[in-house]
Amino acid sequence: MGRILGISSILLLILTFPLETILAVTIQMNAGRIFKKVSVQKETETEIEVVDPDGVIYRIRKDKIKQITEDAPDTVPEFASDESVPTGAVKAPSPKDTLPEHSILLSQSFSNDGAFQGSDLFGERQARRNGTSYKDYYEAYFLTTSMEVLGLPKPFKLGLTMMNPLVDRSNTDTDLRLQSTPGGPDQTYLLDKSIATGTLQFDPNEVKTRKEKNGLYDYLFTRAMYDHETRLGTFSAGFLFINQNDPAYVMRGYWVIGWKAPFWEWLNPQFSINNKMLNDYGGTFQGTHNYRLTVSHEFFKGETFRITPSLVVGYAEVNDNTDRKKGISDISPRLQFDYGKFFFAANMMYRATPALVDNATYTPNIGVYPDSNANDGLTIDPSKAYGYKNELIIDYISSLSDDPAVKRALVDHYQQQHIVHVIFFYNIGYTIRI
């Protein structure tokens, strides 16, 4: 058999090999990139699918391939059987190269914010902590570290992702509230009375700004999945667990099922359902569902420089067991550029149904009046909630009318803002095998 194999003969060569034999080849791309010791899994008219020694699967366009070279088989001499030994023949030790060449696929990236199913993970909490308005771009910088176990059987996937804030980690009180105890009621009104009367109305050593647990959280995502390939597509099932370093959240657990369509391979369509199964917040979110549709396409497959646009659309059937709202949780386009081991991605999250997060759990009520309309997409602007300046403004507005309804309308108009529909963030990082 020749050392150089034509692409059209790959499938024929696989069929002529015994099933237990692994066909190892080296693929050289037109741009110079080389895939070593890969085995061919399947072939279409335009692409071939290969798996490397670590179990990582690649799809490679045929028109980008320069040549495919068959690797020489590794032969290991067997020990002769010693019939005088009652325990049976001595088995040869497993050759070292039967183990995966690498153990972990490591990826690290730096970002200014993060999102999950329509929720902003860092930026909006940072705004509440620092008393700033909600906005579409935050500087809540954090480091993401992802590790995926390599060398597992092809259907199995196991990985974890850690998201560690690099700013605003400490517990502090920067929202200008005056308290006699950490987490106690706001007593800023005492300062307003002191200014109005010219006499100090409180003990500054007792009533003051105090540190609270309002630092940004660390997140840990753990994922275990099983894929089953059929003629109807690839079906998958598994678990996603999310831990936070805030005891109020404990753990969020999702039962994930998915399907990858066998058609429209150019768009790589995938559909999944995240089913909430663990109890948190007294069961508030238990039993909720989020349907996810993903399409993507990688341009310049197998090249050193690659571009991958993608789009994810999520639909929440029930956002929680109290509000029971439904709607599009997020429309999240992403554009990623890869150069060798490095990548840069620009992301956007669009909340088509902001009422899904218009509740006291996601956007806590920090205004003078409780939120009486949970479907208007309005929430309290953190920059207009606390501090003696806001107290003075609210007192003045309230004095404009004796009608309670008018007072409330005026104060709400001052304090409220629309929940941000669009949030932008980026990732820059690298991926290596160790």
From TrEMBL:
Residues 76-97 are annotated as: Disordered. It comes from the Bacteria. This is Porin.
